[in-house]
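From the pipeline queue, job 12 of 40. The input is one protein chain; the requested action is below.

Action: predict structure.
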Amino acid sequence: MINKSHLFCAIAGLAIASAAPTAQAAKPTEKQIEAKAAKLAVQRGNFKQPRTVAEGEATVTRMANGATGALVPSDLWNQLSVEKDAQGNPRVHEADGTIAAASTSEGLSHE
């Protein structure tokens, strides 16, 4: 029984020792990190949110697992507004992209 535990510890130690150099070799250099950051900054700068359904349909992509994805046009985003009722309690109004959001109560005489 003791020999099995010593053998297990020896195998575990060898596995850890052999993994250390590969982990150090996989660590990116500072230049690689800066290059990746610059690439991501350019990609973010080129991003444009579609405004209409037609523009949104142009962003449809197929993933490796067969699923599809697309950016939702900003015309279809829900709009939220909050206004106070006569008792001072907040009321939240939600409108989808097909109708205008409720107007706010700023400047009403009872406030």
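Job complete. The mean pLDDT is 78.
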